[in-house]
Amino acid sequence: MRSPTMRVILLGCGFDTRPFRLGGGRWLEIDEPDLIAAKEARLPASESPTELVRVPIRFRHESLEATLIPYASTEGAAIVLEGILGYLPDNERRALLDALGRLFPRHIVVCDLLTRAFLARYARGVVRSLREMDVQLTASSDHPEALFHELGYRTLAQISIPEMSAELGADGAPPAWLVRLLPGFRTGYCVWELQRGT
C-alpha cells in the first residue's frame, strides 16, 4: 500500500478480501445488496484490521455517482475496477470514468482490459457461454487504454495476465513459451494502472 491513509474503492468488490490482507488504506467496498449482506455475515467489516466501509447499490437502478458523493475527495484515491469494464459498452465506460473524474480529480484506476483481437481469437468459448446467460463480454478496440488517455489518464503500468500466470505457475496457466510466441495473447489481456491528475 503506497499510503496507509489512501482511499481505496473497490467497485463491484465481489468476495474480495484485500482490506483484510493488505496493510493500510481506507477501504470502500461497493456491490449489490445481496452480495454485501452475504459478505458482511461471513466476514464483518468491523473485524477488518483497516478502515472498511461497505455500501450496497443496485447498479442498474441507482446512481453510482450519487452513491459515491459522500466519499468524494480531492486527495489521491485508488479505484479498483476488476472484472468490470469488459461488461460495459463504450458509452457506459466513458460515463463511469467521467463520474470518477468529477468525484476524485486525483486518482489511480487499476483495471483489467481485454482487446478485441484477444476476445475473438482466444476467448470465443467464454464469450459464447456468457452470451447464453445473457451476459455480454465485449471489447470494441485493440487499444482499450485509448479511452483513458483521451480522458486525461496516463499509463503507469501494464502487466500481462497470461504472462504473469505462466511465471507464477498458476493452475491452468499457459506455458511460458506459448505466451512468448503469441504477442497478441500476451498483450491482449492485461492489468492496467492508469493515473488521472497528479
- Helix/strand order, N-terminal first: EHEHEHEHEHHHEHHHE
Task: Determine the number of helices (DSSP H or I, runs of at least 4 residues).
Answer: 10
Oligomer: single chain
Structural class: alpha/beta
Question: How are the secondary structure elements laid out?
Answer:
Elements lengths: L6 E5 L6 H4 L4 E6 L1 H10 L8 E6 L7 H5 L8 E5 L8 H14 L3 E8 L1 H7 L1 H9 L13 H5 L2 E8 H8 L7 H6 L1 H5 L1 E8 L2
Parallel strand pairs: 1-2, 1-4, 2-3, 4-5
Antiparallel strand pairs: 5-7, 6-7
Outline the structure in words.
The model has no long low-confidence stretch (mean pLDDT 92). This protein has helices spanning 18-21, 33-42, 64-68, 90-103, 116-122, 124-132, 146-150, 161-168, 176-181, 183-187, and strands spanning 7-11, 26-31, 51-56, 77-81, 107-114, 153-160, 189-196. It is globular, with a radius of gyration of 17 Å. It is of the alpha/beta class.
